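Predict the holo structure. Ligand: zinc ion.
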Amino acid sequence: MGGFGSGRRSRYNSKAITEGQHSIDVRWLKKRGYLRPGISGTLSWSWRGEQTGIIGFRMEQDRMGLNYKHKKNGGEWEPVEQTITFYQTPCNYGGHRKWFICPHCWLRVAILYGVGKYFFCRHCHDLTYGSQQEDWPDRLMRKARKIRERLGVSRDLSVPILFKPKNMHQDTFDRLRKEADFADHLAIVIMGKQLGLIRHDKNGPFL
Ligand SMILES: [Zn+2]
């Protein structure tokens, strides 16, 4: 596992003690008011009183920039910049809730982990070491089909979801439709990646 070097300093500073894991929780950022555009600062992690990592962050309306240094065991320190895009869902009682979009799989998550060079979701870090990646598109498509069933729409993913079932709130319908489309789209991105059709950079996969 690599470590993290010093990020840019600024007037906001926070320290979270986790169990040796370098993670960023979007709810934690929100609680401290760090999700507001224009806020920048550093996040650091400690283990038994020793600082184990520090990164610089910069908030924008729809994304967060991270900068830090990373080194592989025995290697040179290397500057890393990563952009994390946010995904917004409406709350039941007004306002929005922000999520991270994992830059590796595009899934909506609350926590990203800096296990290697980049911050990815837990699944992606597990997948790096596991063989479950093959199942991933299947699971996403199953999820999309399940939502389609609930909406009374064809299980065929190529049929667009157009009409809201009677007795369903518009908000619920909008959310479910978005989730089904997102899961379906993601499955295609992942399959494309597995087939080598999609390239990848620090901002996530692109066609
Ligand atoms: Zn991921």
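Helices lie at 26-31, 122-129, 136-151, 170-194. The longest helix spans residues 170-194.
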